[in-house]
Structures are given as structure tokens and as C-alpha cells.
Design brief:
Shape: globular
Order of helices and strands: HHHHHHEEHHH
Structural class: mainly alpha
Helix content: over 70%
Radius of gyration: 18 Å
Strand content: under 5%
Distance between the termini: 44 Å
């Protein structure tokens, strides 16, 4: 399993970085839309749709929704100031606060949504749609003046999440004793949690120092810490829904890693939360 994870990571990471740096805005939006459609396909299983045909329709509807939103918005790459995208990012912030409560009070909280496909689908919409717009808004930030500014910010968030995940795994294996959320994800520990935050803080500081990000240090640290915490919540939330669905992985598309949702669960929370804080709360220009 570890061998497949390493091989997949060695292939996927360069592909993701290349897409960030070299794809034009429209091309990047199309690739991100395709990823979101695959995530919607997998979310169908978490929502109780076991039939392949039903999940295909969910993926198609997700793609049509995102495509329609893009087509309705003039010059969508200036997104954070547009009401639809601004509302989507604020909705994401609200959803992840709700998700925190659902995870904290699980399994009692599952009584509120366990038997409702509609609610679980709504949770999927609030997870996938803001993730899409967070990716687009960050990637296209200041694109007119510098094609790589937004790519740098998005890469920063991804490194933040990847380092938190890797640090949590390493510290958890070495020192993990006290369970973080045993009823949701028994493998996660408080030692791994703090180790992940420490690792992401170190990576954030190093990246910010080398990249010379033009943002106040206090703003950068606040956004980074909250995004790192959100990434953990995204992982725990997907684990909660998988536990209710009785599955180990959301899919088997990526050898050694499971499905698309298994790989982007942390990003689905971190990206829109980071974008909302940076562009709307602190109004960084």
C-alpha cells in the first residue's frame, strides 16, 4: 500500500504543480470542474445513492451547475467581488462551522441527517461548489498583472495542507497516544494533530519567506492557521460521512490513496476558508 501511495504521489504532485503554473485560466477551470464532477460522483455514495446511474447524474448535474455559474458571470476570474462567488465563499465558512459541530457531537449529530438524502446532498454542494470557486478565485488573483501570482497563492495553500497531513501522519506514528476523534477517525491522535500544525507552520513560514508574499504577517499567519485547522476538519468530516455509509474509501481511482474525495477532503475545507479570510474578511487586494 505504501509503495502505491508513493508512486501515485510522485506522479500526481508534478501534474498538479504543472497545471497550476502552465494552464491558462479557462484550462485550469475545466480541469478543476472535472475534479469536482468526480468528487460529486463519489459523494453520491456518501449520500446513499448506490446505483451507478444515479451517481452519474449527480456528477453531470454538478458539472452543469458549475459551468452555468461560470457562463453567467462576466469576467469571473475577478471573482471575489462578484456577489455569487462572494456568497458561495461565505456559505462555505458557515458550512464548516456547522460541520465542526456535527463532528464534535458525532454520533449523536448523525440523527439529524442520517436518514435524509437531501441533507447529505446539500452538505455535498456546500463542500464541492465553494471548493471550486476557492480554487478559481485564488488561481486568477491578479492574473492581469502577473500570471503566476494566483498560482503561487494556491500552491501555498496546497503545501500548507500537504505539510499538515504529512506532519500529522509522521508525528502520529511516532508519538500518537491520545485519540483526537475516536468515534469519527480512530487513527488520528492529538500528537499527530499538533505535529501537523507545527509542520505546516514551518512550511508556511519558509514558503512565505522565500516567495515574498505581499501580505501582512499577522494576516498571513491567521489565514494559514485557520486554513490548516480547516484542513483537519475537512478530513474528519469526510471520515464521518464514510463511517455512516459503511465504506473505507470514497473510491478507488487513485492507487494507494482511494478516491478523489480521499485526496481533496482537506483541500475542500482549507481552500475556500483561506480564500474567504484572505479576500473577504481581511480584504487583501
Amino acid at each position: 500500500m505504501l509503495k502505491y501511495r508513493l508512486i501515485s504521489a510522485l506522479i500526481l504532485i508534478p501534474v498538479v504543480i504543472a497545471a497550476l503554473l502552465w494552464l491558462p485560466p479557462v484550462g485550469f477551470a475545466i480541469v478543476t470542474l472535472a475534479v469536482c464532477m468526480l468528487a460529486a460522483w463519489e459523494w453520491g455514495q456518501l449520500s446513499g445513492f448506490a446505483q451507478r446511474g444515479q451517481r452519474i447524474w449527480l456528477a453531470l448535474l454538478c458539472g452543469l451547475l458549475l459551468a452555468a455559474m461560470m457562463l453567467m458571470l462576466p469576467e469571473y476570474r475577478h471573482g471575489a467581488s462578484l456577489p455569487v462567488i462572494e456568497g458561495t465563499l461565505w456559505a462555505s465558512l458557515g458550512w464548516w462551522i456547522v460541520a465542526l459541530l456535527l463532528v464534535f457531537f458525532y454520533p449523536s449529530s448523525a440523527a439529524l441527517w442520517r436518514k435524509s438524502r437531501l441533507l447529505r446532498l446539500l452538505f455535498g454542494v456546500l463542500t464541492i461548489v465553494p471548493f471550486f470557486w476557492g480554487m478559481i478565485v485564488l488561481r486568477n488573483w491578479h492574473y492581469e498583472t502577473n500570471h503566476y501570482t494566483g498560482a503561487l497563492w494556491l500552491l501555498y495553500v496546497m503545501l500548507l495542507v500537504w505539510s499538515a497531513d504529512s506532519g500529522a501522519y509522521i508525528f502520529g506514528k511516532m508519538f500518537g497516544k491520545h485519540k483526537l476523534a475516536p468515534k469519527v477517525s480512530p487513527g488520528k491522535t492529538w500528537q499527530g494533530f499538533f505535529g501537523g500544525l507545527l509542520t505546516s507552520a514551518a512550511i508556511a513560514w519558509l514558503f512565505g519567506y522565500l516567495a515574498h508574499l505581499n501580505v501582512a504577517l499577522s494576516v498571513l499567519l491567521t489565514c494559514s492557521i485557520v486554513a490548516a485547522l480547516a484542513s483537519v476538519l475537512g478530513d474528519l468530516t469526510e471520515s464521518m460521512f464514510k463511517r455512516e455509509a459503511g465504506i473505507k474509501d470514497s473510491g478507488n481511482l487513485i492507487p494507494g490513496h482511494g478516491g478523489i474525495l480521499d485526496r481533496i477532503d482537506s483541500l475542500t475545507a482549507a481552500v475556500p476558508v483561506f480564500a474567504c479570510l484572505l479576500l473577504l474578511v481581511f480584504q487583501t487586494i
